[in-house]
Amino acid sequence: MRKHYAGIGMTSVRTRDRLIERLRTEGIRDEHVLAAMAAVPRHIFVDEALASRAYEDTALPIGAGQTISQPYIVARMTEALVHGKRLSNVLEVGSGCGYQSAVLAQLVERVYAVERIDALIAPARERLHALGVSNVRMRNADGFDGWPAHAPYDGILVAAAPGYVPQALVEQLAVGGRLVIPVGAQGDQYLQMLVRTESGVEEETLARVSFVPLVPGIG
Ligand code: SAH
Questions:
Q1: Under 8 Å between Cβ of 139 and 121
Q2: CA nearest 209: which of 168, 158, 167?
């Protein structure tokens, strides 16, 4: 039986607006990113029992020991990735419940998403379908390998932290493409942005962050 998503586009429009105002005061400036955050109802990506907390600016559990990222972090990473452009081809690593995928889908032409936990994929696809999002392709794979078939990407966003930047991801970046990725052990993690240039990569540290680890292999 198809699941019903109560109040898509209706419930919590006001609470969502409050979230957008909070993101603005926290420093998110890109109006397209704010509009994308406003367009995606976060409550359908979390368990019904937690839906009332969906517009708090916190990470919440999504099952299988994973979490939906904090809205501020989703907005911040998205803003850094798209930097005012309309990207055509984006790779997302660690799509989890699909929330970040849905936000990206508003802003870029095509999203290719990989997730290591197979059990999270069908529900994520179902949510995207229910929202009418049709430009995301998702598969069960190890993000350490990226998704070579659709490379090069003009943006890669990683939602779990490896100890080092996986070489395959750098290789799958187009020249001028950006990789936004948390790196480091829990308690000592930094959000990094790498830009691929003709001659190599430029790296910048954006913020101190706290993500679940990027775990090798599939589950
Ligand atoms: N993008 C999600 C956040 C998911 S949390 C959101 O919108 O809220 C991070 C996700 O990364 C988890 O679902 C976890 O299973 C996944 N992950 C961890 N290691 C991975 C790997 N090697 N390859 C792909 N996904 C991975």
A1: yes
A2: 158
Confirm whether 214 is domain-assigned.
no
Percent of the chain with pLDDT over 70: 95
Give, as one character, the DSSP assignment of residue 4.
P
Structural domain contains residue 79? yes
Q: What is the CATH number of the domain that holds 84?
A: 3.40.50.150
Tokens at 150, concatenated = 């659709």
Query: Which atom of ligand 1 lies closest to the CA of 74?
Result: 7
Mean pLDDT along residues 154-166: 98
Q: Could you tell me the pLDDT band of residue 1, with boundaries at 50, 70 and 90?
A: very low
Number of domains in the chain: 1
Candidate of 76, 77, 117 to mutate for ligand 1, largest count of ligand atoms within 8 Å of Cβ: 117
**CA-CA distance, 140 to 123, in Å (whole number)?**
13
**Residue 164: inside a domain:** yes
Predicted TM-score (pTM) of the model is: 0.94
Rounded to the nearest whole angstrom, what is the distance from the C-alpha of residue 160 to the centroid of ligand 1?
Answer: 5
Residues 16-25: pLDDT tens digits?
Answer: 889 999 999 9
32 in a domain, yes or no?
yes
Asked if 98 and 62 touch (Cβ cutoff 8 Å), the reply is no
